[in-house]
Amino acid sequence: MDKNYRFEPELMTDLINSLKRLPGIGIRSARRIAYHLLQHDLKGASILSSSLTKAVENLRNCKGCNGFTEYDLCYICSNQLRDKKLLCIVETPTDQNSLESSHSYKGLYYILMGRVSPLEGIGPKELSFHRVLDRAQDGIVEEVIIATSFTAEGETTAQFLIDMFSNKDIKTTRLARGVPAGSELEYIDTGTIAWALLERKQVG
Amino acid sequence: MDKNYRFEPELMTDLINSLKRLPGIGIRSARRIAYHLLQHDLKGASILSSSLTKAVENLRNCKGCNGFTEYDLCYICSNQLRDKKLLCIVETPTDQNSLESSHSYKGLYYILMGRVSPLEGIGPKELSFHRVLDRAQDGIVEEVIIATSFTAEGETTAQFLIDMFSNKDIKTTRLARGVPAGSELEYIDTGTIAWALLERKQVG
Ligand SMILES: [Zn+2]
Ligand SMILES: [Zn+2]
């Protein structure tokens, strides 16, 4: 329930509404942030405005992995030392980072930027799974490593991927279930992740 | 603990850092918000950037009440129907809104934009109490109504104000303690606030 701020300046209302649009920010937080910025951190407000503009104008999805980059290919995809025969599919850049931090994977990635979630109306189509398939069928990739989270939605996502690759000439593996069921990948320590990568098993 | 994102585009890191600077936003939320904006809500990112810029450039503190306004005087301060003999001191615009919503106050306001908090190093000086005093001594104000929260910090703030006005020729009152102790003003229903205004008692 939001009280009616009839006397609030329109520019303040606009700012609060645009903050409220952010995920996880309710009306109270939005208002608190807006007041804080205007009263105590004008510089922070300007910096945020400018970094938003720069990010929107310059960042795009990497043609190789779908991650964020300023160029056509990101830092990892353009690294000639990476093993192009391995393609690891993750849900988010944060999950990708967890894998990188384990220092036990030298292949490439594909970032779904989400997970299948029937309740939210997010299916393979919304996540553009056809692009994952195109990417994996570049004639170089020999193995797809599915590294979605071991949550209900992560499992559903994995199953869709397994089905999609089932009749393709590509080895499909999945991280070993060494991580506790029901947990998010990004919260797992890197040692466990390294172990799960090593013990990955073929599923398709 | 934040993992090292060595391969993250600098513009993304900048955006995440500027989001992390917002009150109540940790590194995980900042990253989640940044990814969401870039992947799913570019328009929201642009709107936020532009509303931040407009707010920073056009909003200022009202010369009358210290609230936010696009003009020298805000909507309330420039309303000739308000009773200029009453000055109600509140901590935040949200508290002011709570009082306005009770439809039982027709005087003017002064918004401290904070509260005395020794632990955070915020005292009368940081809140520019001298400006409250100047404002109240305009020769028109006859009564100052202290409407700080009934929390420990709100009580401390009230006491500083009471002391400041103690030897001045201005009646000083406080909202009746009709509201439960330990609660924030902004969470109180308007009926209780109306009653507390009516029952306000002189304290200085
Ligand atoms: Zn890439
Ligand atoms: Zn004003």
UniProtKB/TrEMBL annotation, chains A, B:
The keyword DNA damage applies. It comes from the Bacteria. One of its GO terms (molecular function) is DNA binding. The keyword Nucleotidyltransferase does not apply. GO terms for biological process: DNA recombination; DNA repair. Belongs to the RecR family. HAMAP family: RecR. This is Recombination protein RecR. It comes from Candidatus Kinetoplastidibacterium galati TCC219. The lineage of its organism: Bacteria, Pseudomonadati, Pseudomonadota, Betaproteobacteria, Candidatus Kinetoplastidibacterium. The gene is recR.
